[in-house]
Design brief:
It contains 15 helices and 29 strands. It is α/β, with parallel strands linked by helices and about 650 residues long. Residues about 1-25, about 425-460 and about 545-550 have low confidence and may be disordered. The structure holds zinc ion.
Length: about 650
Amino acid sequence: MKRKYITILLAVLLAAVGSIAQQPAQQLEPSVARLQQHISYLASDALDGRRTGTQGANDAAHYIAGEFARLGLRPAIQNAGASRRLSVAMSQYLQPFPYVSGINLGQGNYMSLGDKTVNVGEDWMPVGFSSNAKVERTSIAFVGYGITSSELNYDDYADKRTSGKIALALAGTPDGDNPHGKYARYEGVRWKAIAAKNAGAKALLIVSREAKLKDDRLSNLTYDNSAGDAGLPVAVISQDLIGGKATFDRLEEGAKKRQYIFDENSTASLTTDLVRKEVQAYNVIGVLEGSDRLLKNETIIVGAHYDHLGRGGEGSLAPHSGEIHHGADDNASGTAGVLELARLFTSQRVKPKRTIVFMCFSGEEEGLLGSSYYVNHPVAPLANTVAMINMDMIGRMKARKLIIGGVGTSKEWRDLIDSANKHLFGEQVSPDSSPTKSSKSEHLANINVSQNASIVMNSDPKRFDLTLQEDGYGPSDHSSFYSKQIPVLFFWTGTHNDYHKPSDTFDKINYEGEVRVLSLVARIVRDLDNAEKRLTYSVAKSDSQQGRATGFRVYLGTIPNYSDSNDGLLLDGVRDDSPGARAGLKAGDKIVKIATRDIKNVYDYTAALGEMKAGEEYVVEIMRAGERLTLKIKPEARK
Ligand SMILES: [Zn+2]
């Protein structure tokens, strides 16, 4: 299998070399051969799935930096030092950001139940987001599943006997195995830890549902890079420690009836000691300086994420982890797209007027970490950033279907897309055609306007079958830019069966299709660059499913920042005309308290949101420019 794979790879590389040689100089079309070359390397076994913080991801970053250097892009990071593996010149393309790549047990882990010392790694394990702390000989309170939900009128802590004690909870929920049960969203140990902390518990012990502790996902020491630690020690313990499966079943029966009967005299001592492995992850950034004296101060960003899922784990849809997730479409395709566009724009005779910044992000799969870092540490002022074009999964075009998100983020986008489309098909644009609504839509290809109204105006088989979506927020890096009031477009050829699986391989890419997508993107970027006036930012209608997916009853219109934080919830944005905006919340605010709840991170925030009721007024405390402010917010019902 592997040999065959290498043979195919070689054949593709040879084919690529051959056809590049035949291309005339000044060839300004995206090239199938070059896309094959980039994607077959980025999605190869050698890069091991490009998980953020791994050697494979770093090798991908070096490859991208090498291409940027070869194309003559200016490195974006001025004060980069040489690293062990990279020259100063190359590392100047890399924007480092902190990332927790792994968690290890420290030396100090200790647990005893009563007088019996139990072994870390065998009988118990701290969970990856546990705080490091020491809790000495403290009584244990059994708390059923350890769930608090005012929405479901369910509170395992209602009897208030847990304060100052160690909470002992069963893994899972009263739903049993039903993943769509009403308790499903309280199952996560992050939420259970918040409930325990709010109830005044000193620590939380979760009894595993697995016969062997090693089989429990919770014992894997994974870290989500999103919210700092839990604020109290949290550990998973084996069923054996409480007397085996029979005891577990008895406790579960009690938990379902809310009878919390457990050995009243039980105590535990607990020390948790986790060592977080902090590494650097990298965005790769190259600059093509604008040629116009004034307009060069304006920046157009062309970006894509290059990280993927490594060998599975969190985010993988494969049944078993351990296999390389190649990520050819997601998102070697977009990365290759950035490289091809960089080649087109550096090799064209007429230099762009505005500055074009080519950017490949890491940490996307973990929650837009790289792009979120960039917008908080930009290399060119965000106020002068005209637009951000994002490509994520553009390699699987079927039946000429292309999705473009973000068209509501500037009122000029629809016309730009329309005219780029026309240009691509060589249509004559008559300059005096009156730009009324109906004549405009005739120029559009088969456009499915969001809200599912489908307008099929032209059945030219060469045309894109476009689906235009308004929202500037979405599941990829353009979200980070839109939250800073930058117009965005998001190009995507849709999902497929290999999505987030090892089988997303380079041989399944539709290279001709990707060339067409890139031609369209190139044309749009050129038009953006040639426009006399910069784009106007507008607030897009939301087609977001987020609220429905998470099942919250209330809506605030806030866009949380998902990077690591332990002192409040930073807002990346606030939707206009939302309860958050009416309360006076702004991007950059850090929410530290809602009603009586302290908010340390996005989990505390989400838990607090789950407890709010529409139409009631709540006090929100925020930090803004070093000052603590108090605002009042009235959530709306989720539609
Ligand atoms: Zn992905």
